[in-house]
């Protein structure tokens, strides 16, 4: 066997092996969702259930207002991703293609956000959200009411933009030749028009990459919705999983059934955008 061909087989074998390892949690989640609680709590572990209880899915969805929970997560995620991509792409374009005083310093300061854990700024952000003027019964000074607590605004606005998404856009836009800007200028294109008519159509991989990463992050948000919501009406799908906790313990079969249904939209989205995701990560990572 040729060395190049043997190397390719080894690499492919390793990829398949790692893929199987990473699939184990998903397989366990799926088979657990089809078991009875007696089987799950049995001292002896058995991967496959004796009886496949597909009724676990119907029983899990019958508890609570799951259409409302899915609607909340969909509204929050789609709005955050839609507006966030515009904000981050424009910022990345400015840092990559516009020459202005202090550009590199501002870019470095923006990257500081990558070094600060989200949990560190949750209390200051919570206080700001609570003190929004004229919202939730607040006066002009932001006192007397609840602001954007327990609202879509409070769940969406703090997560509209992220330094990592802006960084990916900047790195991708740096890969375009300077001659592209010069040609657009000769044709009478403004910066804004060249961004929408030239750069966006050529940048679908990075847009898909940021959209995918941001969608998964927002869909799986748990801590922030837990902090600022206090009603069943504003629950997201992740918060809704807590309803399967009772005095007798966790209802693992219902939790796994609900988790499987929650994961399906993200899996389908990844399959659909996989090609663009790989292209965007590679292209954004090699540009200086």
Automatic annotation (TrEMBL):
The keyword DNA-binding does not apply. It is found in: Cell membrane. One of its GO terms (biological process) is transmembrane transport. It comes from Paenibacillus piri. The keyword Heme does not apply. InterPro entries: MetI-like, MetI-like_sf. Residues 70-273 form the ABC transmembrane type-1 domain. The chain crosses the membrane at residues 9-31, 75-98, 105-127, 152-173, 194-216, 252-273. It is a multi-pass membrane protein. Signal peptide: none annotated. This is Carbohydrate ABC transporter permease. Belongs to the binding-protein-dependent transport system permease family. One of its GO terms (cellular component) is plasma membrane. SUPFAM superfamilies: MetI-like. Gene3D superfamilies: MetI-like (1.10.3720.10). Keywords: Cell membrane, Membrane, Transmembrane, Transmembrane helix, Transport. It comes from the Bacteria.
């Amino acid at each position: 066997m040729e060395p190049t061909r043997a190397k390719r087989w080894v690499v492919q074998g390793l990829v398949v092996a790692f893929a199987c390892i990473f699939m184990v949690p998903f397989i366990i989640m799926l088979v657990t969702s089809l078991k009875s609680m007696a089987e799950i709590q049995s001292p002896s572990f058995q991967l496959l259930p004796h009886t496949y209880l597909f009724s676990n899915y119907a029983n899990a969805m019958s508890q609570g207002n799951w259409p409302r929970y899915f609607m909340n997560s969909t509204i929050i995620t789609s709005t955050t991703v839609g507006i966030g991509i515009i904000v981050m792409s424009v910022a990345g374009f400015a840092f990559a293609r516009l020459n202005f005083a202090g550009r590199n310093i501002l870019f470095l300061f923006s990257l500081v956000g990558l070094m600060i854990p989200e949990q560190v700024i949750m209390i200051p952000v919570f206080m700001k959200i609570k003190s929004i003027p004229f919202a939730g019964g607040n006066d002009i000074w932001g006192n007397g009411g609840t602001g954007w607590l327990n609202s879509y605004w409070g769940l969406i606005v703090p997560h509209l933009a992220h330094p990592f998404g802006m960084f990916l856009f900047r790195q991708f836009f740096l890969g375009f030749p300077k001659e592209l800007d010069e040609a657009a200028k000769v044709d009478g294109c403004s910066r804004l028009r060249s961004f929408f008519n030239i750069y966006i159509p050529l940048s679908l991989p990075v847009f898909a990459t940021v959209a995918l990463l941001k969608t998964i992050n927002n869909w799986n948000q748990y801590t922030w919705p837990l902090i600022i919501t206090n009603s069943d009406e504003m629950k997201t799908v992740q918060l809704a999983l807590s309803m399967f906790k009772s005095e007798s313990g966790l209802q693992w079969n219902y939790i796994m059934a609900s988790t499987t249904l929650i994961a399906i939209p993200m899996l389908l989205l990844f399959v659909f955008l996989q090609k663009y995701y790989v292209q965007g990560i590679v292209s954004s990572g090699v540009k200086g």
